[in-house]
Amino acid sequence: MKTSRISRVVQLLTTLQSGESYAVSDLAKMLGMSRRTIFRDLKELQTVGVPYHYNAKSGSYTIDPEFFLPPIDLNLQEALGLLLLVHKASGQIQLPFKNSSLLAALKIENNLPAKIRQYCNTALKNISTRVDPQAPMNLLDKTFAQIQKAIAKKNEVSMRYHSLFEGQIIDVELCPYHLMYNRRAWYVVGFSGLHKSIRTFKLNRIRELKSTEKYFAGDESFNLYDFLGRAWSMIPEGKIYNIKLRFLPVVANNVAEVQWHSTQKVTHSSDGSATVEFRVDGLREITWWILGYGDQVQVLAPKALRNNILETAKNMVKLNS
Known about the structure:
By secondary structure, the protein is an alpha+beta fold. The chain has helices at about 5-15, 25-30, 35-50, 75-90, 100-110, 115-125, 140-155, 225-230, 250-255, 285-290, 305-320; strands spanning about 20-25, 50-55, 60-65, 155-165, 170-180, 185-190, 195-200, 205-215, 240-245, 265-270, 275-280, 295-300.
């Protein structure tokens, strides 16, 4: 739901919740909206699951007053923080059950004291969030719910998966351990019967998913952070490297002010550059991150990483010349 519509939809909810029946023309006049806007907002309510009723004889709409939660005691910051999360973050990140989250937010908004509700609606119009591009997923709710249920019941799942590493569709019997959101997409971590090891699978690459009644055991000792170890992002390769990079003055401060990795150490130089060090499991993931800084970063160590960057740079020149 767009920010500019939040206040409008809450007004519509509050009016319909009064128990009175209103025709679209009445609502448009009372709320200062066009009939087209009223119909659009009614459709929005229907999308998030608000059970309004339409009386064909009178051509009017109403909402059961008992549908909404009783008033809750939230102060201004609590209310704004919660609504900011739902209306802003959920619109930027691929969160499961987004419509349910919006419905919960509308319930809460509808029962906030008038002054707090008005303040939040005004504040949200002047707040925006921007995140990295997200991996789109049309069936996120269904896939997420199916895997989450399998994790809770410790049931295996059977899936057809588009593996970029293997370059083909593969069939996997998976014991799912953990659902994880990482940067741009959702992943499931679990024991793959095909690979005979714990693997990570991206949800939007699952082509078919079937739950089974096969019970699995042995995930009690699984710890996500132990599994990820010191990987740069989420793929440990089994070998720790001491990474040493020199960032030129143009980007040095921007790089240094972000905690990219738990092992990060930064040394600033008088010329404005910064030397950043990490202890990282594997080189593949950090190689792509380094390349994003182009000619503003110098690889000091290890030699293997420097060779990776040089080889990739040569291929880029060859491809684009």
